[in-house]
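Students often ask what a holo structure prediction actually looks like on paper. The answer is less mysterious than it sounds. You provide the chain, you provide the ligand, and the output is a string of discrete structure tokens encoding the 3D arrangement of the protein together with flavin-adenine dinucleotide.
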Amino acid sequence: MSGAIDRLKQALGPKGWVEDEADLEPYREERRGKYRGLTRFVARPATVGQVAEVVRICAEAGLPVVPQGGNTGLVGGTVTAESEIVLSTDRLDRIRDIDPLDNTITVEAGVILQRVQEAADDADRLFPLSLGAEGSCRIGGNLSSNAGGTGVLRYGNARDLTLGLEVVLPDGRVWNGLRRLRKDNTGYDLKQLFIGAEGTLGIITAAVLKLFPKPRQVETALVGLADPQSALRLLSNARSDSGDTVSAFELMGRTGVDFAVQHVHGVSDPMGDRYPWYVLIELASPIDDGRLRETMETMLGTALEREIIQDAVIAANRDQEQRLWRLREAVVEGQLSEGGSIKHDVSVPVSRVPDFIDQATRAVEAWLPGIRPCAFGHVGDGNIHFNLSQPVGMDRQAYLDRWDEASRIVHDIAAELDGSISAEHGIGIMKRDELPLRKDAVALDLMRRIKDCLDPEELMNPGKVLKARRQPSSDL
Ligand code: FAD
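The corresponding structure tokens follow.
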């Protein structure tokens, strides 16, 4: 290994690698503290040529490579064994091109998501991918995990937002698929292989992403309602009554709102009365005719009359709008102060969301009395983050030790309702061993063949998504 490391250092230059124990820490740590990386070397290439050179040297030496972007992933996708190196994209951070006529932006993999949004904004365009970690996650990571977030309902997920890719393959060749074409029917759509592959098939080095007209009017409201079924009725009405301008539709249960109000500084109860469920709804229109507020008022007024909702507040200005979004984000933060939390990121067909929440809540309450389900999420996409806070007074670790038991119950219900065990976070190592139980056998076989074809030596993020067949990393 040391010969290969010397070659890597030479190829990368002085700022291009990290070996010092203290400096390695940020690349080793995993946000939820569930896993711990053990790598002893981080490569920080600054050009595509350097990425290719690193991968070639590693391929020759049989050295496994784990790509890493912002390291905000939630399924252990960047966790390393001692014998693996991290390839960080943090220096691969150029915006190569922005074209308002093509409505595209071409960025390198290490560009932070928020920078892409800002660059689009400067060009009077919108890049709609938006999620809680947008200040630190990087485009390569977003695409490799096919990130979702709050804008999927209107604009689609990372997969839908990508026109072209540049990828370094496991043998060190560079595939230049940086096309900005909206139509290209020349055979297999190869970029789709690498999106959502979690770094197991190659390293994304750049991407052409879609831009959209910038919204000229945005209206945001918080609604109190009785149950998730009412939320679905509201969604259906809102889409048709607003000319399909719904750009976000986030459901929150009262438990999560309580946690946010109790524990997160600056967050207060949003309405005079308490409601079992809330929806944060956003309408956005690229037309500046001043009528969107009226549309929101009419739509919510009708919903009140029909008793679909119980109360609503519409943000009067940008500050109030931000406070409503702050509440939504604080639902995640607030759980941290309530002890152990067993987290799930499931999806079901939108129409089955109420059934899922109802059945899963009853099942986990029967399994562990006192457990506190905290369901929230991008419900317009059928995506529920079904997080379970521990019973008050229970030992935190004893509770977390039962993670797999709880997940089996929750995932069984999602599967019965034709859902998925991973809506947007991916598989990583966290759900890898469960994947064969949940995925169609033919699909799994095809995935394995694709992996074998592109990465026969299993050097590209081994052991993630699919179990490694050769030389399993002993410490993963
Ligand atoms: P990393 O964590 O660095 O990597 C993720 C995976 O991609 C790993 O398997 C890694 O090996 C691989 N990878 C990284 N870069 C490359 C590359 N260039 N080429 C090939 N493979 C690569 N996710 C959502 O989908 N929706 C949300 O709403 C959401 N909200 C979040 C909120 C918070 C507060 C946090 C902490 C996370 C959230 N996430 C969400 C999860 C996470 O932010 C996303 O998965 C994000 O897209 C990961 O980007 P990253 O750059 O941090 O990737």
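The two ends are 19 Å apart (CA to CA).
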